[in-house]
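Module 6 notes. Inverse folding takes a fixed backbone as the condition and produces residue identities as the prediction. Think of it as a translation problem where the source language is geometry and the target language is the twenty amino acids. Below is one complete input and output pair. Work through it position by position during the lab.
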């Protein structure tokens, strides 16, 4: 959808344009290899964020390099595109590894006749410059399960076989009502569809509040992909979805269990250290001009509340199960300190 146009129908997400899988055994034609692939993301995008968190928790920074686009998309031939700029470490406007200005170029390298939308995350094959996949869910699943030989020692099991059915069931409900529901609210073309979408958002938040009152994590006793999928929306809720997308019945901070759960994860390596609130606010308020025509970026809320005590340890469980936390993020991937993001 173009940033400066409101939809005439309810927003719907198209299937991934490209969805090649990269596996340890190469059974789909592509094999996990160090330094072969580059993950292109925006720190503003929740769909990209879940893949970045998976990569970080699995310790794949040394195997799959990271390219960060500008949070403000550039309009090219009438459509918004993710581009590289000086703000994200590309002074000449081109990614230093792929040599491209816009992610669109990797799509066209793969298919010169492609005329669809361009989204992040995008996994790009470095030697050919071809886009491999923009399927955010499959990318995160495969990073959690297929890159084992290249993952760090102590990497957690984010998608345990015994819990996969429950993870997928819970995640599907969260996606329908909340992950995508905030967009259906924000881009609702009329009052009736807004009312239905926003009601579903808060019905799901109410159900999650109840579920997380007496359990530390969404499924099982440690972090799984279900938590990553939920948290990528929660961390953006008060900053942009509450006001910008009109999901303003309640704030996240008004849900005792959910707010504590969100802080618990923010303070866990892999979550807060991959979050850049400035990119989030700037993207949503600057790019969605049909919703916010002035482009004025909201100043709050103060992010320092994310560092307050949460008390969730008393519920049991441990973040990484039998694994261990990842070490510090690579220096060139570190986000600014939280005090500088307010």
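Target side of the pair, the amino acids:
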């Amino acid at each position: 959808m173009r940033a400066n146009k409101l939809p005439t129908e309810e927003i719907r997400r198209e299937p991934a344009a490209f969805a090649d899988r990269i596996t340890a055994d190469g059974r789909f034609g592509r094999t996990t290899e160090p330094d072969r692939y580059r993950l292109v993301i925006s720190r503003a995008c929740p769909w990209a964020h879940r893949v970045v968190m998976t990569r970080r928790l699995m310790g794949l920074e040394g195997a799959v390099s990271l390219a960060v686009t500008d949070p403000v998309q550039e309009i090219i031939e009438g459509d918004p595109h993710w581009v590289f700029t000086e703000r994200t470490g590309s002074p000449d406007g081109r990614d230093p590894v792929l040599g491209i200005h816009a992610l669109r170029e990797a799509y066209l390298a793969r298919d010169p006749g492609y005329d669809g939308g361009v989204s992040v995350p995008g996994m790009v094959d470095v030697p050919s410059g071809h886009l491999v996949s923009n399927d955010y869910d499959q990318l995160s699943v495969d990073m959690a399960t297929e890159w084992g030989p290249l993952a760090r020692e102590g990497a957690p099991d984010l998608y345990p076989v015994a819990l996969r059915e429950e993870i997928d069931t819970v995640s599907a409900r969260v996606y329908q009502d909340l992950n995508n529901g905030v967009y259906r609210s924000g881009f609702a073309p009329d009052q009736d569809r807004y009312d239905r979408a926003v009601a579903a958002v808060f019905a799901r938040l109410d159900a999650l509040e109840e579920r997380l009152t007496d359990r530390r994590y969404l499924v099982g006793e440690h972090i799984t992909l279900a938590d990553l999928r939920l948290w990528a929306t929660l961390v953006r809720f008060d900053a942009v979805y509450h006001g910008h997308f009109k999901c303003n019945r309640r704030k996240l901070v008004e849900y005792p269990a959910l707010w504590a759960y969100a802080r618990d994860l923010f303070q866990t390596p892999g979550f807060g250290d991959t979050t850049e609130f400035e990119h989030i606010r700037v993207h949503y308020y600057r790019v969605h001009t049909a919703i916010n025509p002035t482009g004025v970026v909201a100043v709050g809320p103060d992010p320092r509340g994310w560092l307050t005590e949460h008390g969730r340890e008393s519920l049991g469980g441990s973040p990484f199960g039998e694994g261990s936390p990842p070490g510090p993020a690579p220096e060139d991937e570190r986000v600014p300190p939280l005090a500088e993001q307010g």
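Reference fact for the lab report: The chain is about 35% helix and 10% strand.
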